[in-house]
Amino acid sequence: MQSGTHPWLAQQRVHYGRPAAPLVLEEAQRCGARRVFVTTTRSLTQGRLVAACIEALGDAFAGKFDAIAAHSPREAVIEGARRIRDAQADLVVAIGGGSVIDATKVMLQAVWYGVDSVEGLDAIVGGAHRGGADPGAWDADPQSLRMIAVPTTFSAAEFSNVAGVTDVARRLKQMYTHPLAVPRAVILDPAATLDTPERLLLSTGMRSMDHAVERWCAIRSLPFGDALSLHAMKMLADALPRVKASPQDLQARSDCQVAMWLSLLPQSAGVPFGASHGIGYILGGAYGVPHGETSCVMLASVLEWNEAVNAERQLAVAQALGRPGERAGPAMREFVRGLGLPWRLRDVGIERERLAEIAGRYDGTGPIATNPRRVGSAADIVEILELAW
């Protein structure tokens, strides 16, 4: 008999299919915020979305930080946290993709725990701050500074209390977690994705496909997670090609947003990722490969490598892609190619001579350790990388 406890995220609302700007104001008013700070990127600052949200906030707008680069460098986190403190903000609105949203999660933790230097972030990596590793002991006040998120990509970072931030000096992706780091509300406005470049948007959709597939194929599955993962796969397989074929199709974009939401919910039940995510963290943190593109180049090969232990489970992946009876790995590779996205490591600038170096960066922890087929050595990782090269 299966038994366990399912914890829900500290997320109160998900709005979908509605314009972002009036909802940002509605959420600010709902929580009584008087000083609302915006985090975003310089490119988004030039567009209509950020301007509309700031205009909607009116006198409640307290400032903006838009120097967040890809992979959420720790330096940007510290500077953003300083700006939030100086503005005396009582609510933060993160407008952007996974890098903006993850960086903002860690900015909040830096504000809560008085971290004011890059080196100081080491004290709170993985939730190892003054409350200890036990979530029950974490002591940020429930009324502490929180965030809401307006995602502009399909990466699904806004549905997790975990954040990946990059230690640029060590070329290392570090994971931070806190139950109150998850946005208290999320606004899924399909129009918010219209200015996102096609390659970035579709590749982050593949990131959510990776979330769903690796959770479906996980070493620990649960009915709750299986239902969400399977439906997310089917929705993304249908909607991502529609976004590519008809870029102005807001319904297709909305379907992708709902699918990415479904893809990440099993995380709260403790269903783990596998080697596609784990190797992706290395490729992103050490080699600068964008989050979504790591999934584009790794997922199919990880499926192929894992086939020896979960071939039957993978049949549903191929079925979701509209390729019943076929092998999931090759079917996934063709799906990525059909979206016009990079599908090999060489396509994202990784030289074959570096494969052993990449494998050597694995430290025995993270999603590679929970891969369905046991990864016992760096040689196993090289084998996967060779399939992807």
UniProtKB/TrEMBL annotation:
The keyword Glycoprotein does not apply. CDD domains: MAR-like. Residues 12-190 form the Alcohol dehydrogenase iron-type/glycerol dehydrogenase GldA domain. It comes from the Bacteria. Keywords: NAD, Oxidoreductase. Pfam families: ADH_Fe_C, Fe-ADH. One of its GO terms (molecular function) is metal ion binding. Its cofactor is Fe cation. Its EC number is 1.3.1.32. It is an enzyme of class 1 (oxidoreductase). Residues 203-388 form the Fe-containing alcohol dehydrogenase-like C-terminal domain. SUPFAM superfamilies: Dehydroquinate synthase-like. Belongs to the iron-containing alcohol dehydrogenase family. PANTHER family: ALCOHOL DEHYDROGENASE (PTHR11496), ALCOHOL DEHYDROGENASE 4 (PTHR11496:SF102). This is Maleylacetate reductase. It comes from Quisquiliibacterium transsilvanicum. The lineage of its organism: Bacteria, Pseudomonadati, Pseudomonadota, Betaproteobacteria, Burkholderiales.
